[in-house]
Amino acid sequence: MEAKDKAGSSGNRAKARTKTAKPAKAARASRAKTSKTTKTTKTTKRQRRASVVTPSTPEPTASPPPLIAAIDVGSRALRMSVGEVLADGTTRRLETLQAPVAIGYDTFVRGRIRALTTEAVVRTLSDFVNVVGAYGIKPPEIWTVATTAVRDARNREVFLERVEQQTGLEVHVLDAIEETRLAYQLVRHLLGERFGSGTNMLLALGAGGTQIVVQTDGEIELAETRKLGLMRLIQTHGLPEHDVSDSVRAFLRKAIGSIGRVHDLSRVGEVIVINNDVYRVVAEVGKPTPIDGGLELTSGAVDKVVALVDASSNDELVDRYNVDHATVESARMALAELDVFRELAHNAKKVVLPASSMLDSLLLDRRNALEGGADAPVASRQSEAAAWAVGRRYRIDIDHAAKVRELALQLFDGIRTHSTLADRSRTLLAVAAILHDIGIFVSTTNHEVHGGYLIRNSQIMGLSRSEVERVALLVRFHRRAMPSMGHPELRNLRSAQRVEVLKLTSLLRVADSLDADDRQLIESVTVEMTPEAMHFRAQTRVGDREGFAAIRRSFKEKADLCEELFGVKARLTEVLAT
Predict the structure, then answer these.
(1) Phi and psi for 349 in degrees, rounded to 5?
(2) Looking at residue 146, what DSSP letter applies?
(3) More confident site: 326 or 30
């Protein structure tokens, strides 16, 4: 079917094709309704006088659960959900709507979003806004995100402006690695400790891209996104009416094989797959084992599902099972991609399919934000783990990077009361410290410049594109001449971001100087600010006078930015541990 037919009429079909969990008016009435109980008793005149003198205090009314709403502007459809956050921290969906507006057909074939599709999106989103408005939620409060189809469109800015102008929604275009973070966060929430045990691989097989996370005992070894979206594959290789062709599998092996050359996927014991179409097909034909949060199959059971799907035409599957043509087409391609990943992870015994979607991820993200970022420490650890994964790929000196990170964070905590740096800045400093020497992989000459380039072109899960850029700048300036507010590479940053980069750079330069000999001579460092000086006290155990003298020389060269920013002298003192 042509994209024109799919997109042009989808706005009018939005309500006919939606699934409603609970009518908006009924939900609003239910939340507003309060119970009133009247107790009638026979009282004496004396009791009635007492009740006038001492009026009874009414029972406090519990406030209703807070509401959250999210919209996913996806490649194949627009989806909306409203939920309420219950007292136990879980989220209960009140309403879910979906409309098949295929933005991806425009972007992946033409490279841009047509006006016809844009208007279909605007009409559908306007309907969503009206439904959400019945719950008292205004457009700016709706967490609205777009993924690959909008991100890769050449005219995305015009599209976003039109949507905001007509609907009041501010659409946040997610970076590819942000999609990976959302998928990872949701699976960790759904599967709990099981997801953090052993070596497992998470695959989010989306219409526009594939998110991949490999971890061992909760430590991330790989986190990235590949442009292997199912809609891209279908558009490139045609709609699969039967067995996926050998050319598709050959293409996938070439595209995915590089992962296996860098990472040992033979250690993977479990593959976790996020894809609603695969979930539906497996639930119908695969006889999976239900588990908390989803379904589970053995590797042999997956082979049987793939064989059955390959041996059946789309019409046969639609007639025999409770699935539609679009689901079968997507699932057939997704199963082929999963098969190629399983060739790399050939020792995996099980495949797990969480009952999840992008909307679930968005609602969970909104709930965490509503709770004041309860997962912020966990998110910081995940970003650092992702940085270590990137660092190992470029063969950084692990011991030196770990020591510089440790010292840099001690310095950050030491000057915290003398700066406006936030917790998020601490995470950026930690990531930069881990990766500050990454450029040596390219060349020891000007490795700070190479390092900045490598980081800009790396995916660090948990960091936005803007944050990755600031980390790249920290690495770029961690050695040689100190930067200034007017440096050309800082011009695209806001004033507050420039100050942040300069302050963090000053700490990174000092931390790096304190391990200049790569021997981890200094165990810890404290910093004290006085009107005359910044006093750095480095604790050592060995009393290596010659080694500390070399560190002092490096400190003198790299403490210049601290002196410039804080307007005081920087002094280093050795303190022997007792």
Answers:
(1) -95, -25
(2) E
(3) 326
